[in-house]
Amino acid sequence: MIGSLLAEPKILLIDEPTKGLDPQSKKAFGEIVSDLVKEGLTVVMVTHDIEFAANHATRCSMLFQGEITVTERTRDFFHENTYYTTVVNRVTRNSHVSPVVTLEEAKRLWHVQSQS
């Protein structure tokens, strides 16, 4: 990927970038991608790694039979989706706590609620 960035592209296309990565490497890669996006690079990623997408994508799309069937902000995409969603969303949906999409969101939201 580093070689691809030497030409200073405006768009980076990546396919299944977290496949085979251990959790530490996945976290480091996510930070790199987030930093590149903050610097203005558009990153288009194809992935089945729902947790990674929930933590690092700004928008998500669903492809079905070669067509984009939906595109939404990441939180909306996973919060409303019954099949493709994060583990923490499945656990918190229909529970006594506010439903969340990521662990980071749970930490922020539930910490604020516990302070009230």
Task: Summarize the structure in words.
The protein has 116 residues and is of the alpha+beta class. It has six helices and four strands. A two-stranded parallel sheet has the order 1-2. A two-stranded antiparallel sheet has the order 3-4.
Instruction: Describe the main β-sheet briefly.
Output: 2 strands, parallel
Number of β-strand runs: 4
Mean pLDDT, as a whole number? Answer: 87
The CATH architecture comes to: 3-Layer(aba) Sandwich
H/E series: HEHEHEEHHH
Please give the count of helices: 6
Task: Strand order, main sheet: write it out.
Answer: 1-2
Q: Which quaternary structure do these chains form?
A: single chain
Rg measurement, Å: 16 Å
CATH topology label = Rossmann fold
CATH superfamily: P-loop containing nucleotide triphosphate hydrolases
Task: Report the end-to-end length measured between terminal Cα atoms.
Answer: 45 Å
Strand percent estimate: 15-25%
